[in-house]
Amino acid sequence: MDRGDFNGTRGSTTDGVAWSAASPRRGFVSLVGVGPGDPELLTLKAVRALAEAEVVAYDELVSEEILALAPEGAERIAVGRRGGGVRHHEVDLHPVVVERARMGRRVVRLKGGDPSIFGRVGEEALVLAEAGIPFEVVPGVSAALGAAASLALPLTHRLVSSTVTFVTAHLASKEDGSPDIARFERQIADLPKEGTLVFYMGLGTLPQLATALERAGWSLETPALGVSKATTPEEHHVTGTLRTLPALVAEAKLAAPALVIVGSVVSVQARIEGLAARSASEAPRAREIPARLLASLRKRFARLAA
Predict the structure, then answer these.
(1) Peptide bond preceding 284 in cis form (omega within 30 of 0)
(2) What is the pLDDT of residues 11-39, one digit of tens each?
(3) Taking the mean position of all CA atoms in its chain, how far away is CA 286?
(4) Which of 18, 119, 190, 243 lies 20 to 30 Å from 83 when distance is taken between CA atoms?
(5) For the chain, how far is it from start to end, CA to CA, in angstroms?
(6) 196 pLDDT tier (thresholds 50, 70, 90)
């Protein structure tokens, strides 16, 4: 979409930000996916958006290394689950994003993973469109793709899995606040009966998930894996079956953000992992972006934006 015209007459607002309702300077919002955690998995388009940002609104899971790509003078606002006293599920888009854009600011809304995969981009884009605010969506590496690459886990495999399904394992609540187990089991029952299943936000519902999958026709002996903080230095995973994984996850104390991957591809990953462990070499893990590279990226994109 059009990046917006940043010219126009401006007055002032109560917080000192120049803006005129009669002739506003048009703002612009970038809904940016920053990937699963490793800053080196950012796209160049995401880096450019950050380099041009005047306001950065970010989820609590976005790392300091990624935030450091924004100009030092950019306003940084924590939103998401805990930021600003507004929980992310209570609004379609945090009010501060719309407010700053209406003031003519270039706003970057940072979101973990990819905005289009359980990232609420549909709700947020609709709010911006209805408000007449120009915006763009910048894709990011989804948590599932990041975890699969980091673990050398093939989400599809020509011999064992020709499909992959991304599922939210969040347990919805009834009107009285109690968990809606029946609705959860109906949703699980509608899933494919083979292939690969990737469950987002599934740690807290693993026992219910295993039971629902069994009732839907999946064997409790199906290979299953839980991975926490994939692509980061704190990455940790455990491998078992649908029967054993809940206990393994609890014993390992896996923490969010985490994924649960179910299917025969998990056995392929275990085989690859076992063979790779024999090698003396180790693939490099996620690391901070060097300060010199940060400075170079900022300078490059500042020239492009000029």
Answers:
(1) no
(2) 333 343 333 333 345 799 999 999 999 99
(3) 17
(4) 18
(5) 19
(6) very high
Kindly report, residue by residue over 75-129, the tens digit of the pLDDT: 999 986 543 344 444 467 889 999 999 999 999 999 999 999 998 899 999 999 9
The 10 Å Cβ neighbour count of residue 139 is 19
What is d(CA 67, CA 42) in angstroms, rounded to the nearest whole number? 12
Query: Rounded to 5 degrees, what are φ and ψ at 159?
Result: -95, -25
Q: Tell me the domains of the chain and their CATH numbers.
A: 28-141 (3.40.1010.10), 144-276 (3.30.950.10)
Q: Please give the helix or strand (H or E) that residue 261 lies within, else none.
A: strand 258-262
Q: Residue 262's closest CA among 170, 163, 142?
A: 163
Is residue 168 within 8 Å of 209, Cβ to Cβ?
Answer: no
- Smallest CA-to-CA distance from 102 within 123, 145, 131 is with 131
Q: Please state, in angstroms and rounded to a whole number, the distance separating the CA atoms of residues 180 and 95.
A: 30
Evaluate the CA torsion angle 227, 34, 165, 129 in order and state its sign.
Answer: positive
Residue 116, number of CB atoms within 10 A of its CB: 17
Task: Look up the pTM and report it.
Answer: 0.81
What whole-number distance in Å separates Cα of residue 107 and Cα of residue 156? Answer: 37
Structure tokens at 269: 């990953």
Note the pLDDT tens digit of each residue in 38-47.
999 999 999 9
The length of the chain, given as a count of residues: 306
Strand partners of residue 173? 179
Q: Residue 222 corresponds to which tokens in the numbers above?
A: 């199906």
Strands 223-228, 236-241: pairing is antiparallel
